[in-house]
Amino acid sequence: MPFIDSSLYNQSVSLLHKNKHVSTIYAGMFKKFPVPNYQREILELNDGDFLEVDFNLKNPNKAVILCHGLEGNSQRTYINSCANYFLERNFSVFAWNNRSCSGNMNRLPKLYHHATIEDLDAVVQFVLTQVEEVYLIGYSMGGAQTLNYLGRINNLDKRVKAGVAISVPIEIKSSADSLKKGFNKIYMKNFMYDLTKKLKYKAEQFPDLLDWSKIKNIDGFDYLDDHFTAPLHGFKNKEDYYYQVSPARSINDIKKPVLILNALDDPFLGEDCYPKELAQKSNCIHLEIPKYGGHCAFPMKKSKYSYAEIRAFSFIEMISNN
Fold first, then answer.
1. Alpha helices (runs of H) in 179-306, residue ranges in sequence order
2. CA-CA distance, 70 to 68, in Å (whole number)?
3. pTM, full prediction
4. Strands of 133-139's sheet, edge to edge?
């Protein structure tokens, strides 16, 4: 599929939101959207841990599974907005929380990362007990989980029909390096604040597991991932972690239709996060690169919804009608 560089979003963005930081900060801090009417299910996992899934079973025939970003959760504004858009169009919605992200700390030492596909598969299997067809939509890290899941799960259930990955870091190192630059450091500091709190909690849970005294030295992803993320999840070091969990290792093996929606001005994404050549050669990967949009933002001039969920719906409708 040729990549889509003439995105309709380029004609739908206001002058104000042509600034990538304005779009990103507006969507992350100021935009509000009500939480749907959800039930919550606690999934007990085979390793003794648990996940929490919020869902609205509106239609037993089709559902979207929504995957949040780093240090997000099932009730972030961008998830709520997408959930409501699909509920209004007669889809069931399942919004899951990665370990430690639901408001309840998980039981085991490990937390989550961009290739936590076993946990996503547990969610998918639960959803498939409720509905007939499933579509995955992931934002940022959740987009990476979506792509890794579709590319790495053996014997993928045929009822999983397609995926959409929004503002997704295709190469994790490229994304981590982008967050070291200029104003982008503000976003990184916010992540460090939240993740450091969780690591301090893990230090109380498992005091003999790691040298937790190094928490005080965390100043960015390099140190965090080298001393905590990588060893907690079985990787050699940060370089091994970045390489192994990047969707770039997975997308060549994806056999389901996928839309990747990455804004060219996304402050979280580096130049290696726009796989144009791969999309041009692939029968499954649709790559859309709007000039604007920021990170997980894509605000519209005359709509309470963002272009992200509008585009995700149009892509899923195209797939389901074929």
1. 185-205, 221-224, 230-232, 238-245, 276-281
2. 7
3. 0.97
4. 39-44, 50-56, 92-97, 62-67, 133-139, 160-166, 258-261, 285-288
